User: Fold this.
Amino acid sequence: MVGRDIRWKGHDIGPTLLIEAIRLVSEVADRIGILGVHLRSTPGGERLYKDFEFKQFSSYPFRDTARFILSTKDVRAIAARVQELLH
Assistant:
């Protein structure tokens, strides 16, 4: 995975990888019943997820503040905005 490859650290590809992941989730959400995206962030990634309007997932049983969630509705909205920018 490119996002975990230390050789890519510092090349500012995080937003590109996240946009591609959001686009893929949006594309398959209806086919496989996705409700949203739930992830665990590294300390350096928290700002990126907040920039994309992920919310902290405070319902996690261990109160892990590095967990974030984004609803499918928000995923679709971001994917639509990206699509508009590309065309």
Summary: Residues 13 and 28 are 23 Å apart (CA to CA).
